[in-house]
Fold each of these.
Amino acid sequence: MAPRISPTPAAPASFVPSPASPRKIPPRRLAGSPQAARAAGPFPLAGGDFSRPSPLRDMARFLGLSALGLALFPALALAAGAMRVLFVGSGVSLFPSGGLGGLALSVSGLALLCLALVAGAIWGRRSRLLFKAGSLALSGLYPLHFLAARLAGADKRSVERSFIRVNNRMVEHQAKSAEASRVLLLLPHCLQFHECGVRITMDPSQCKRCGKCPMTGLLGLSEERGTPLAVATGGTLARRFVAMHRPRLVVAVACERDLWSGIRDSSMPVYGVLNQRPHGPCFDTGVDLAALALALDRFCIPEAPGLGEVREAS
């Protein structure tokens, strides 16, 4: 008699594929140590989880396109002067006088100063004043970079990505390492599985750690490094968490648009790591845990056991 073969049971309609195994988190290294610097390379963190193209090439692209946007203003002023010579007469000066020429020269001079400040904040000496000036200059250069990049055919997302990368390099060079408890890990709520009924925005420790979303690994990373973790649903709640924790530095995970706006609005150093969007924006997103671990190891100074309790008691 032939053996009976039981039919393969069909998968239920609500079947959720098991998530891919998380990337191995690198071992903890002392922040700023020579061993960590040699292992990470010349620009260890400047790309976050978007390491192509190289950080150096992307910074050169940002500064180059900003310089191209800077050149547009005198070019437009020169074109206006040529039109005056052509249609008014040969006795008129080629360079426009008055408001248009003064405006073009003023904008060009200001943009050139911004370029110098950003370059100084990236490659110059460490200075809190220079970092503040470089951050303001980077925000001021963004319209020029955006204009030149769009004329060159680049999309808005790549422009925001370049802005984040240059900011990250500036933060790496200028920001000082801090105690792990003074570095805030700020996450978007879209990392949580969309069918999860647990509300973790106000208390991430309520997470059941089922493994269906990256929150399991993120909570473990926060506990291992000793950094506070916050999950925000938007910019207002993110600012509230920053005011509540009063960190010296923020490591934020988000999309290009939210990171760009958050970096521009923040008065403290913000290192950005892009999220992963396999299902589209704001829906079951992911994050590179290895890149996040490198960022925390770069900026966090591990505290001695019991130091936090002694500080609170005092």
Amino acid sequence: MLKIAVLLFYKLMLAGFLCESHDYMRDGKKKLTTSQLKKLQEKTFYGKEKKSLAYIIGIMNMILHGIEAPNIIHTNTLTENLADIQERDRFDIILANPPFGGKERKEVQQNFPIKTGETAFLFLQHFIKKLKAGGRAAVVIKNTFLSNSDNAAKALRQELLESCNLHTVLDLPSGVFVSGVRTVVLFFEKGAPTRKTWFYQLHPGRNLGKTTGWIHRLGLINRGIQMLSGCTYQRIDDAGLHLLVGDAPRLLEVDNVILCAGQEPLKELSRGLHKPFHLIGGADVAVELDAMRAIDQGTRLAAAL
């Protein structure tokens, strides 16, 4: 039977991941023997919780779900130095919903090779280190982890992709785990580098659908491409591209402008432009969502320029 680690934090006050895992294994299709049930009770589920109230409520919920002696430690997970983790300390499965937006002290950051005050990034390093070879993890994290351009985020994404097979990313609607916050769930297995990643977007009232857009955007960010969100394009002239970032006007003094307009052609931006221009992808013809066609056209155009 697997040794399962469920890391409990203040955002997971009822120990839901742990209790659901216990119920799934106990009530599965295969009936467990007496010895297996004993191991399920005593040597399968482990957790750590920093907050006193969450620690008490989590233990109470586990007892109500039939786990009579919960293996939960009242401690700050991040105070453990990664260099001190031995093979006997590792787990087969980690399920976690670490806190978002918290900040840790400098002395705590010294426990990690990638220094950052963002607690979620420190936790992710901890999870990777705590997994056995071949171990699996499902981690909830803010979707900005996929696009942040700071050095810590880029280094952590590289570490995750090189040491683990990040086989699936589930993009969730806003507010699923934290009110007003968009999150993703990272599913990965330790021991082999990432070769292919499936990205899924979950929309309320719609079936789960896969998307390739995240893959290409992540590749661009990892190559140092700067991205701006919340933009409204105004015009193109000899000075460059005029736009609004939020409500603030901005001028990008560039020689070449490539419009990635998706399903909304913006040919009007080229009207009155007395310079050579090229329209590709959805900016030219938006008959269907075809990211690969647009990327192929953009690559060929970039090579020609």
Amino acid sequence: MKSRRKGKTWQHLLFLSVTLVVLLACGSTPDPTATLPPPPPTEEVATEEPVAPAEPTNTTASVIPPTATPDYQATLDHDATLEAQASVGKILDWLSDINIDLPRGYRVPITSDSARLKVTSYMGQEYEKITPDELNDFVVGVDITWNSSSGLAGCGLILRSEADPNRGSSYQFAIRRLSGAGSWDIEYFIDGKYKGNVTGSVRYHDAINYKQDSTNRVIITVIGEEYIVYVNGVRLSSAYSGVKLDGHVSFLAWQESGNTTCTFNDAWIWAVTD
């Protein structure tokens, strides 16, 4: 009885063993525990070098200086100054030729520094006033070119005249051409009529170029009652009027007969204030 029971027990254990093996072989294998993906590699952050603070940006736009507005009056004044300096230089050159100094004073503005006067009538006369205002003492200079035919003719200057020398008082200087000789004088007029010769008479002088179409440079100082006449750098003489007048200056042309043309160039007047 014991042997039989032992046999059954062994058979039973064998059966359990086989059953367990079958179950292990046929059973589903449990999923392994899920493995988490490894974390992404940590990026190494580079340590930045300290940066100097940036200069503040100038947000103000560059300012372009405005274009200066042309000062036309200043330009005119500047040009006038240069012109005045040049004109005074010319006067100094003329006076240096006769060895006199420029007296204290100023350049007188004249209406014209050149003109051409033509006379065709018998005992005719033409003039052109060049001073807007009356003058007291002054020095006047001009180049005079003459052309005449037939009789006595003269070209010159009216000095210290009233507004209309044909009706008022004046002194009249002229260089004269006749019979191949040059002469000059200063005459005095009252109410437009001849009253006398300040030089005493007509005077002749070799310094006067009497040839046709010749040019004579005339400078006259008119100071007080004294008139001093220079022609072509030569002092001709002086004359005293006995009466001092303030007045105008004019170009003058006259003749007895024929045709006479007097051309005036580069005229200037210097007022004397001493």
Amino acid sequence: MRQLAGLSLGFHGQAGYKTGMENEKAMIPPDRAALAGLVRDARNLVAFQQAMGIEGYPASPELSRFLCPATEKKTATPVPTGERRPRRPVAAPVTSASSLADLRKELGDCQRCARHEGRKNIVFGEGESGAKLLIVGEFPTAEDDGAGLPFQDEAGELLMKMMGAIGLDRPDLYLANLVKCRPTDGHEPLPEEIAACQPFLLQQIAAVRPKVICAMGGLAAQALLHSKKNLLQLRGTWHKCQQIPLMPTFSPVFLLRNPEMKKAAWVDLQLIQKRLATFASR
């Protein structure tokens, strides 16, 4: 038996197990056959993760969010009679900016959502049009907020090591985030905040015209792919955003807290390296 994140999961050899399952299916009712198939799939998934060198999943809030995305609805706070709830800023429509400079000018001193409250700087992005790889993180850190640039802290150092391992440097990259402001309390982006900022991100992608996009973190991947699947389901497989190949993977912040997941992230980076190589050979 192998102990994974507090759960005891046994694994039998795939060939021997499949034979056992076939014999078992012959003896169980049809309504239990589906359950048996799920068990088989779960065992095969564990085998795949073990083959990549993953010995377990850490018990952390970040992983819990990947595995079980929050679906609870917030209870509305009663508004006393005679008082008015402050109106939310309305996101202005985004026009088709022709360049990154035009888009930054249109963004202006953005107050399209509540995340602008308490920010020091808008973290628009860093890089040039024509970058090979566009990286989309989730939201700015305190260091990013102070500098006005993405990936400025220890996570940024890890990111550059990751990129260097697949032969990329700063000039090859365009760095951005799903949202561009860090509020005073540093909370994760809410759906309405993502909705206000995402049109600008999509325009950035159109202006940069990268060969490949890498969505780092579950929120970034779900927003760009319009998916409710968690990151563990999305990563390791190619998707498309605006007809551009997109690979989801773990964020550097997550990897710093959970270094045992770096092996899985390395698999994703190698896929990116191979895809970029196909463009270079054309």
